[in-house]
Amino acid sequence: MTTKEKVKNSVGVVGDMADLPLLGNIVWWSVRDFRISHEDLEKAFDKVGFDKAWMLKEPSRAHAFRAATGILKSSGVTENGHGFSIMVRDLGNDGESAIRKVIREERDTSNRVLEYQEVGELCFNVKSENMYSKLNPKYAGVAEYEAIMEKAKSEFDTLCSYHMGRKVRVMVHDLIMSLGPTVMRPSGAVYFVPRQHNEIVEKLEKLIPMIDKMAILHSDYDASVFESIAMMDSEKHRKSLYEKFKSQTAEELGAAAKELADLLKGEEKVTKSVAMKHINRVKELKAAVANYEELLSRDLNAAKSKMDLVNKQAVKLLDKIMTV
Questions:
Q1: Which of 124, 118, 120 is nearest to 156 (CA)?
Q2: What pTM did the predictor assign?
Q3: How far apart are CA 42 and CA 52, in angstroms?
Q4: Residue 97: CB partners within 8 Å, gap ≥ 6?
Q5: Cα gap 54→181, rounded to integer Å
Q6: What is the DSSP letter of 107?
Q7: With the CA atoms of 280, 205, 63 and 105 taken in that order, what torsion angle do they form, in degrees rounded to the nearest 10?
Q8: In the prediction, which pLDDT does 310 show?
Q9: How far apart are CA 168 and CA 212, in angstroms?
Q10: What is the largest CA-CA distance in the chain?
């Protein structure tokens, strides 16, 4: 259902809808825990006709190794009331493989270390991009420790072939953030997206449920959804959006100004990419302010003045780097 069709249904518009006055859409989404293969994700994008520039990159085996070993970290309580932790220590690279050591530590109720056991090592061969494990020989046959190492390998194999639900959540979030949204309810991740992005919103409403149906589920939570409500153009809505966008922009610019001031005063080396990050963010904010001024027919002079200051700071930072 298109944005205009939803408006027609909700407000009872009859006949030609070409001139419906819309500001944009209020959007929110939920992505449950699942895994989906890269091939199935690509199929979903193709079926909806969604720009693949936003699709997750094919799973990286090096990233899969880092994620799989990170998943092992845990803590709990033993039968005798002692606390224990499973830790993963990065040992760096020996020239052929990245190595991580798995540690099990147990402490008493006074937090005194009772046991510190090196369970084994998990290794990722940089050339072959394969993962292998080395269980400490003294724990051979100990089911608990063998299970830890086997879990890492199993997770690695899964992450090499699938995208997890949490990555899809990040994908959607990053996409929405690129559309110049205004936060409507921070705690609930509810955003306003301007009307020029109506087509993207409509496609996301099809894409997310389709991904959910094609995925292998890890939970029985409610199905993944992306939902929207069209916001009609009214003075009440314009005023509300103006206040929220003005507050959001002031907060972002204030944080950027403080960070840049600290970088300019500090003695630590700052890279060109850091300076360019701020310059590019100011460009994005300038574009957003211009868009909202036109959309809401209101001036955002205070934001533009603050932006000029932040931009000058970013350029000054860049000049400082270039002269070093």
A1: 124
A2: 0.78
A3: 8
A4: 123, 124, 125, 126
A5: 17
A6: E
A7: 110
A8: 86
A9: 10
A10: 79
